[in-house]
Specification:
Elements (H helix, E strand, L loop, with lengths): L3 H4 E4 L3 H10 L1 E6 L5 H12 L3 E9 L3 E4 L3 E4 L3 E8 L11
Antiparallel strand pairs: 1-2, 2-6, 3-6, 4-5
């Protein structure tokens, strides 16, 4: 198993993730692109001491960015995980 802090990188704090958190109890994390759903579930349960109901993942492509007047660059590709907590679990991101 991978190191837990390498699997879960950071919470993704956007308007969409805040809405999902309030309405459905779903938390969004940026995770390692090589991690699978089982590793993500085990890492979140171990790190935050919660019970995970389901994990959905999405691979996000990097965007084209301008660098100077003529050349363009690209941001890195990354992976996002939508984690739904079981019934009765408190929302632990409010405490962070």
């Amino acid at each position: 198993m991978k190191v837990l802090y390498e699997v879960v990188k950071s919470p993704c704090l956007t308007e969409k993730s805040n809405t999902l958190q309030e309405l459905q109890g779903t938390i969004v994390f940026k995770v390692d692109p090589r991690a699978n759903k089982i590793e993500i579930k085990q890492a979140v349960e171990s790190l935050f001491d919660v019970k995970v109901a389901s994990v959905k993942t999405a691979n996000m492509r990097g965007k084209q960015k301008r660098v100077g007047a003529k050349s363009t660059g690209r941001t890195s590709d990354w992976k996002k995980a939508y984690i739904t907590l079981s019934e009765g679990e408190i929302n632990f991101l409010d405490e962070l």
